[in-house]
Design goal:
- With 868 residues, this protein is an alpha+beta fold.
- Among the domains are: 176 residues, Rossmann fold; 199 residues, Isoleucyl-tRNA Synthetase, domain 2 (Alpha-Beta Complex), CATH 3.90.740.10; 127 residues, Isoleucyl-tRNA Synthetase, Domain 1 (Orthogonal Bundle); 61 residues, Ubiquitin-like (UB roll), CATH 3.10.20.590.
- The chain has 27 helices and 37 strands.
Length: 868
RNA sequence: GCGAGAGUGGCGGAACUGGUAGACGCGCUGGAUUUAGGAUCCAGUGGGGCAACUCGUGGGGGUUCGAGUCCCCCCUCUCGCACCA
């Protein structure tokens, strides 16, 4: 048997053994533990972000196996999506083919990386056996009125040639490719997510403390609940068709309604055309609207950008005082928030203020922050958005704004029938249509007679046609595939056309957690009874970039599935852990931009190309910054155990971790030393009964220390998994300390020492097992421990006695400054400790000529003499 | 602008409810062994000082016997949101 740490053969041997043992399939009758890691898009290669994600999850899986839990640890593929289709356009390879290759390559990598998954449950969302049920779920949503079609201004990415959901647009650019999105008016499919806004907020209650705070906060902000009132303003437009009609507005500040001096509509608002039809302003207003609508998205959405508008020549009547206010069309009013119409109160809203000043519109103060120094309308330089006392507000004069005025104003509006209390959410319906090929086809048929007709369940799946052309421009391949489009109406059998849009891939990932429970089920997407056991997922691990996308969609799905009677749980993920980014040093030259390590001269920090100076920064690994590291090379050079352990050792996993090859080598050295030390001790403790709690007998100081450090580490590791935020870096540090103590103890000489030695070796092996599983398995095997795998053996218990020390070192301070140290028996009485401390020479020197006013004693830790 | 998080040696990071700041690792220095080593082992390693001592957790105040930790003000960085009526 090899004595060398031959990680290559050892790792492949144990990986084969795990498959053979079916180690990662649910086993035993322990309490279920569903550990889910966000499945990857099969790009063909794992990157360091995957490695940290799956290393964290893998440690959790292995720990809970040792805890005797019945663990579910599935893995699959988010295999629909744009990259495969773009690849098809470039190379002609059908997405199904390239995707399969990528999946095979990544699965191999994952196995090589030693991640423990139950491959018998593998799923791929692009597989007809999966998307059949994605389509089935769509039909259920459709039946309930939760999937619907509407014409709406939507985000269009001209580069990806498809529409995008709100959540996929960041800074007005496509989240995928960075292209600035356009607004288009299109008829599209939506999920009615907005009607779940309040439930999505309420659900946060039970996630508190189990999900990262920042994710909950991001979701709350995304959902954006705001309370206020809906008020109706009557249109005064003699001669116009809409004369006398009422326009509703949403406002959070009904207390400012007496301060309305004009009224704003979004340029997209349908009323604009009616208002100006046939008037002398028609041309001017419509032209201005056109300009505003075509304004660059980023520019129009920016807070700093110039506010522009145009007067329609029409008015509204303020329902409270009957006064008339001009109707303007303004670029800063958004059609998709509230009603697309705003009552403008320049004195108390900064945007309205800027607009009013620019166009010379009146400003009317109705809230005075201080009656002694009243605001003067003519000289105000900014709006007053805070509270104060109502003035010029009819019957409200003198009362406190905000709470009381808001209540009275809204109640009055309700009584008079022109308004009510109202709550608005920023969260919109989920736009799920995509004008692309590589996604689940929306199972709908359009019939001239019957209209929108769902495909009958028995006809699912609506398969993606294979004979299609991928072209760089133009319509989706589905739209031009006659054999796909032409069909018969399921209802009347007449000729009809299929929907040619496919579903957003976030639909696929909103329910994959359930499909893992019974991946081959051909009767239903998943079984409610099985789901009762496993859902909500006990631990979900993934990146924070999904905070307002996948994690909201999946919660919405769980709630709908619950309402459909398919799922008992209402929340999909009980606990969520988000890992940090993996960063590495990136180098930049003024002329040659981002450079890889090979392209610079590290000694002088200069560019090899031009000799110019190079600056560097720690930043997220990425292709553009050329600071990525291929995990493959690391596995090859150092092995899977080293890679897992070193990435987890670099720092707390919820913060970003810096990759540094030096520290990888440091961990490799540690594992090697761990191996060498334990392997050399194995024959010396062969057949020895390990020390157990409660055993009496003499042990020398070094062995007592070793036991103390090992049990201390065991305690720390157990708590890291069960309570304290998975700070595995300190667990691994503890393993190193244990090893250092063991090495300092030397060879065991007595029977007692051999017992303590064997106990320590076993503990150290088990403690390291979640992080370096292959190495642990091999040592466990060589120690001739029972069972086929260390992961089928119970996690050890802390021996409290081992943690105790006989003597402690106490710090002695005089007036808060450290002046000496004393060694006393642990648990020593206060008076005895103080007496010893007073006598210490280094302390006496500082007490000389002073009177002790106070003596502070922290048992076993510290003494402080307060002396004057 | 709003919201959140973070600033600790040359570097990554430790420090449980206020109680010996710098665990553990990297790097560095010296030594041993070696033909050699980006191998291994031993010792040292926050700054200043021969020493006694002193200064040190982004900066400035405060509370306390005692502050990295609590309070107030300020600076810097990262992330999220951003004309949301």
């Amino acid at each position: 048997m090899s004595q060398d740490y031959d990680f290559k053969s050892l790792e492949s041997r144990w990986q084969a053994k795990w498959q053979e043992l079916r180690l990662f399939e649910p086993h035993g009758d322990g309490e279920p533990y569903y550990c889910l890691m966000m499945y990857p898009y099969p790009s063909g290669a794992l990157h360091m972000g995957h490695i940290i994600n799956y290393s964290i999850g893998d440690a959790m899986v292995r720990y809970h196996l040792m805890r005797g839990r019945r663990v579910l640890t599935p893995m699959g593929w988010d295999s629909f999506g744009l990259p495969a289709e773009n690849h098809a356009i470039r190379t002609g390879t059908p997405p199904a083919e390239s995707t399969k290759k990528c999946i095979d390559a990544m699965r191999r990598q994952m196995i090589r990386a030693g991640f423990g998954y139950d491959w018998s449950r593998e799923i791929a969302t692009s597989h007809p056996g999966y998307y059949r049920w994605t389509q089935w779920l769509f039909l259920k949503f459709f039946e309930k009125g939760l999937a619907f079609r509407k014409r709406a201004p939507v985000n269009w990415c001209s580069s990806c040639r498809t529409v995008l959901a709100n959540e996929q647009v960041h800074d007005d650019a496509c989240e995928r490719c960075g292209t600035v999105v356009d607004q288009k008016d299109l008829e599209q499919w939506f999920f009615r997510m907005s009607s779940y806004a309040q439930r999505l907020l309420d659900g946060h209650e039970q996630l508190q403390g189990k999900w990262p705070d920042r994710v909950i906060k991001m979701q709350k902000a995304w959902i954006g609940r705001s309370e206020g009132a809906r008020l109706e303003f009557e249109i005064v437009a003699p001669g116009a068709e809409c004369h006398g009609e009422k326009i509703p507005v949403f406002t959070t500040r009904p207390d400012t309604t007496y301060g309305v001096t004009f009224f704003s509509l979004a340029p997209e608002h349908s009323l604009v055309v009616d208002l100006v039809r046939g008037t002398e302003r028609e041309q001017e207003v419509l032209e201005a609207c056109r300009k505003m609508r075509n304004q660059d998205r980023v520019e129009r959405a920016s807070e700093e950008s110039e506010k522009t508008g145009v007067f329609t020549g029409r008015h509204v009547r303020n329902p409270f005082d009957g006064s008339l206010a001009e109707i303007w069309v303004c670029n800063y009013v958004l059609m998709d928030y509230g009603t697309g119409a705003v009552m403008a109160v320049p004195a108390h809203d900064q945007r309205d203020f800027l607009f009013a000043r620019k166009y010379g519109l009146p400003v009317k103060v109705v809230i005075q922050p201080s009656l002694e120094e009243p605001l003067a309308e003519a000289s105000m330089t900014e709006s007053h958005e805070g509270g104060g006392v109502q003035v010029a507000s009819g019957p409200l004069d003198g009362i406190d704004s905000r709470v009381e005025a808001i209540r009275q104003m809204t109640s009055y509006a309700k009584e008079q029938g022109f308004g009510d209390f109202s709550v608005h959410y920023r969260l919109k319906d989920w736009l799920l249509s995509r004008q692309r090929y590589w996604g689940a086809p929306i199972p709908i048929v359009y019939c001239e007679e019957c209209g929108i007709v769902p495909v009958p369940e028995a006809e699912l799946p609506v398969l993606l046609p294979k004979e299609v052309e991928f072209r760089p421009a133009g319509d989706s391949p589905l739209a031009t595939c006659e054999s796909f489009v032409r069909t018969r109406c399921p209802r009347c059998q007449r000729e009809a056309r299929r929907e040619t849009d496919t579903m957003d891939t976030f639909v696929d990932s909103s329910w994959y957690l359930y499909r893992y429970l019974s991946p081959g089920d051909e009767e239903r997407p998943f079984d409610a009874e099985t789901a009762r056991n496993w859902i909500p997922v006990h631990q979900y691990v993934g990146g924070i970039e999904h905070a307002t996308m996948h994690l909201i969609y999946a919660r919405f799905f769980a709630m709908v599935l619950h309402d459909l009677g398919l799922l008992e749980a209402e929340e999909p993920f009980q606990r969520l852990f988000c890992q940090g980014m993996v960063c590495a040093r990136a180098y930049r030259c003024e002329t040659h931009k981002w450079l890889s390590k090979e392209e610079i001269d590290l000694d002088g920090m200069t560019c090899k190309e031009c000799g110019g100076p190079v600056t560097s920064e720690m930043t997220k690994m990425s292709k553009t910054k050329k600071n990525g590291v291929s995990p493959d090379a690391l596995f090859e050079q150092y092995g899977a155990d080293t890679v897992h352990t070193s990435i987890l050792f670099s720092g707390p996993p919820d913060q970003s971790v810096d990759y540094n090859e030096r520290s990888v080598r440091g961990i490799h050295r540690f594992l090697r030393r761990f191996w060498d030390t334990l392997v050399s001790l194995v024959p010396k403790v062969s057949g020895v009964e390990p020390w157990t709690a409660g055993r009496s007998g003499d042990l020398s100081g070094n062995w007592k220390t070793t036991r103390r450090v090992c049990h201390g580490t065991l305690k720390r590791v157990t708590e890291a998994f069960d309570k304290h935020g998975f700070h595995f870096n300190t667990c691994i540090a503890g393993s190193m300390e244990s090893l250092n103590a063991l090495r300092a103890a030397g060879d065991p000489k007595t029977e007692e020492e051999r017992a303590a030695c064997r106990e320590s070796i076993l503990l150290m092996t088990q403690i390291l097992a979640p992080f370096a599983p292959h190495l642990a398995e091999e040592l466990w095997d060589r120690l001739e421990q029972p069972g086929p795998s260390i992961f089928r053996q119970p996690w050890p218990c802390v021996d409290q006695d081992a943690l105790a020390v006989e003597e402690v070192e106490i710090a002695v301070q005089v007036n808060g400054k450290l002046r000496g140290q004393i060694r006393v028996p642990a648990g020593v009485e206060k008076e005895a400790a103080l007496a010893t401390a007073r006598e210490a020479a280094s302390v006496q020197k500082h007490l000389q000529g002073k009177t002790i006013k106070r003596e502070i004693y922290v048992p076993n830790r510290l003494i402080n003499f307060v002396a004057r």
